[in-house]
Amino acid sequence: MVLAPTEKVVLGSIAFAIFWVLAVFPAVPFLPIGRTAGSLLGAALMVIFRVTTPDQAYAAIDLSILGLLFGTMVVSFYLEQADMFKYLGVLLSWKSKGAKDLICRICLVSAISSALFTNDTSCVVLTEFVLKIARQNNVPPHPFLLALASSANIGSSATPIGNPQNLVIAIQSSLSFREFLFGLLPAMLVGVLVNALILLCMYWRLLSVKKDEGIALDEVISEEDATSHRFSPAAMSHPTAQNSQELNTMFETMNTWSSPSSNGSTNYAETLRNRVSSKQSNLQGNLSGRIELTRNSNASKEGVVAGDDISQPWEEDFRSRRISRSALNDRDEMVNDEGSAIPVQPLEEKEEGGWTKPWKRLLWKTCVYLVTLGMLIAFIVGLNMSWTALSAALALMVLDFKDAQPCLQKVSYPLLIFFVGMFITVDGFNRTGIPSTLWNITEPHTRINHVGGIIVLTLVILVLSNVASNVPTVLLLGGRVAASAAVISQGQEKRAWLILAWVSTVAGNLSLLGSAANLIVCEQARRAQFFGYNLSFRSHLMFGVPSTLIVTAIGLLLIRG
């Protein structure tokens, strides 16, 4: 394709540059409107500048990709409701043999869950589990956070539903789920193993520190607490600054009411038993234990940690009504100003709606797992992935047998809108002729039938994925790389698509800004209610550069057409 008229090239480049800046730096000072609005702005400018027509803009939107994204988000939500991710948290800490064992487990669990439920979902769900486990082992959390994010990216490369760029490749290439899986699974498995070994080598001394046996009892996180946290996997929501301040004020108030017993849990329990005889003394005992309830129970509830909105009337009433645990019947009670104890229904029962009977809850969870398994089998046998995911999502809504609005509210609509704007913007940029011109210069040096061509193509994808992000890179390069390889043979065309999927995905591990999964882990860790940790750009880069280069190179040797 030749270059378009100069006016169209200049205006199209301006529109694409605005999209790129806001996609990579969503909080840029001169226009802090975010990625989603930036994507729509780029798309609108392409139409306003007449780089593309409205009809061409609508035609550029790929509904198959949007449908597949929507369906997998809904399925992930119901899997979270069915405690799938709680079981993954249990698996992380079950019979652990130390920090090095945990690193390997995190790499494996993160990779497998990302391949099945997308890397972003896995990172949203597992980040706080990882922080708690690091706290339990008295080890700085950054090796565990790096293991989570990097393995999520590597693991997501194995399936079309693992990440957004793979969705684009699967639709554009017409590769079946089975071809995609079998083509990249060996590279993924070896890549995860090599990534874990790199982590162990870099942080061996840090991970060899023995757990401090003298650590205060109130600083130890129970295994139940570390594995009972509930997230919404479909959409990552963060509390606003105002809500965060309100939550901090609430917890400061609770800390003012009570303080941990200085004699440890044994003396506390003994004191509590001795005070049960009178209601006034029992009230004082409940107050002294309230901070323990906050740490071991409320911290794991969706309403506090996940950042859900807390209604204003509840906040006003919180100062006069305080939840405590009865020493007699081990049930939660709400204590009012007069000291009267009012039984409170457990939060888990409220969340589960009509599924109050254990057998009904078990039956529903079994149905969720079977529907998800059926969806994966349908993918493997070659059914249309978009309609399969949508059908599975609708089946789960029907089986839930209640209003689906809570589920639909968890869908990340900003991500879907971002994709719509990106499709139009990238299509408009392609119409300027700039990508084709640059590719014509590069293409003779990127033929994948010799080692030098593979190296050059890999470097081009690595750089573009970190400069322009991986999804736009795939949209810009996908068809061109495949067409170049098709001249060699049909098998090389398939191999070219798989190389593009592998390199563009693993490239996300190079820097903190390389993939959305990295940013999710960083933000989730920084905003964690009790275990906040700031994963720096430098610490990620020191691990990311060697890991990306080594894992990418080894994986390329295992990819076959």
What is the count of helical runs?
28
Radius of gyration: 26 Å
Low-pLDDT residue intervals, each spanning 5 or more residues: 213-354
Strand order in the sheet with the most strands: 1-2-3
Task: Report the portion of residues in β strands.
Answer: under 5%
Structure class: mainly alpha
- Overall pLDDT level: 76
Largest sheet: 3 strands, antiparallel
Which bin fits the share of residues in helices? Answer: 55-70%
- State the separation between the terminal residues, measured CA to CA: 28 Å
Number of strands: 3
**Which term fits the overall shape?**
globular
What does this structure look like?
The protein has 561 residues and is mainly alpha-helical. It has 28 helices and three strands. The chain has a three-stranded antiparallel β-sheet with strand order 1-2-3, covered by helices on one side. A hairpin with a 6-residue loop joins strand 1 and strand 2. The longest helix has 26 residues, at 177-202.
Question: How would you describe this structure in keywords?
Answer:
561 residues; three-stranded antiparallel sheet; single chain; mainly alpha; 2% strand; 68% helix
Short description:
This protein is globular. Residues 213-354 have low confidence and may be disordered. It has helices at residues 6-24, 34-48, 54-60, 63-81, 84-93, 99-117, 119-136, 142-156, 164-173, 177-202, 204-207, 223-227, 241-257, 264-274, 279-288, 290-296, 312-318, 347-351, 358-381, 385-400, 405-409, 413-431, 434-442, 451-467, 470-486, 490-506, 516-527, 537-558; strands at residues 322-325, 332-335, 341-343.
